[in-house]
């Protein structure tokens, strides 16, 4: 029994000696930034934002899609595919006028005739929405 008490005493001393060291090394909470400027978010660019927006749209996550298309337009206000995505999102959200405006802006921003198939889709959507 004497050995057990001696071992227990040594263990208690070790714990009392180590505990303050480990507490001092590990902060209880991570440090918080002083303001929003301390977080340096770098956008992946309009192409990647539109790609992500299309994935969200395909999955039916309209709010996520909307924010990705808007982020693409913050990077480049003349990026036509972002307006096409916005038109699709607004149409699915039943916001007809916003959808028409986005589709029209898409048509205005088209860089070339190679996007003609998607342009026809946007034109049909405008006509369909105006009839409703």
Structure description:
The radius of gyration is 29 Å and the shape is globular. The protein has six helices and no strands. It has 132 residues and is mainly alpha-helical. Helix 2 (46-59) packs antiparallel against helix 3 and helix 3 (62-75) runs antiparallel to helix 4 (80-92). It has helices at residues 2-25, 46-59, 62-75, 80-92, 96-109, 116-131. The protein has a domain at 43-131: Alpha Horseshoe (Serine Threonine Protein Phosphatase 5, Tetratricopeptide repeat), CATH 1.25.40.10. 72% of the residues lie in helices and 0% in strands. The mean pLDDT is 78.
Looking at the overall shape, the CATH architecture of the domain at 43-131 is Alpha Horseshoe
Query: Structural class, please?
Result: mainly alpha
Please state the average pLDDT score: 78
- What percentage of the residues does DSSP assign to strands (E)? under 5%
Order of helices and strands: HHHHHH
Tell me, what's the shape? globular
The CATH class of the domain at 43-131 turns out to be Mainly Alpha
- In whole angstroms, the N-to-C terminal distance is 91 Å
Number of helices, counting only DSSP H or I runs of 4 residues or more: 6
Q: Nearest-angstrom radius of gyration?
A: 29 Å
Output the CATH homologous superfamily of the domain at 43-131.
Answer: Tetratricopeptide repeat domain
The low-confidence runs, each spanning 5 or more residues with pLDDT under 50, are none
**CATH fold type of the domain at 43-131:** Serine Threonine Protein Phosphatase 5, Tetratricopeptide repeat
User: How many β strands by DSSP?
Assistant: 0
Helix content: over 70%
Q: Main beta sheet: strand number and arrangement?
A: none
């Amino acid at each position: 029994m004497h050995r057990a008490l001696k071992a227990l005493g040594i263990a208690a001393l070790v714990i009392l000696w180590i505990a303050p060291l480990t507490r001092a090394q590990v902060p209880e909470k991570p440090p918080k930034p002083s303001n929003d400027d301390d977080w340096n978010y770098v956008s992946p660019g309009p192409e990647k934002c539109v790609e992500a927006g299309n994935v969200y749209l395909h999955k039916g996550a309209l709010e996520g899609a909307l924010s990705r298309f808007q982020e693409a337009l913050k990077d480049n206000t003349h990026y036509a595919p972002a307006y096409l995505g916005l038109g699709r999102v607004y149409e699915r959200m039943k916001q007809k006028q916003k959808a028409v405006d986005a589709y029209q802006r898409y048509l205005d921003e088209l860089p070339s005739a190679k996007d003609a198939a998607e342009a026809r889709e946007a034109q049909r959507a405008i006509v369909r929405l105006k009839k409703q």
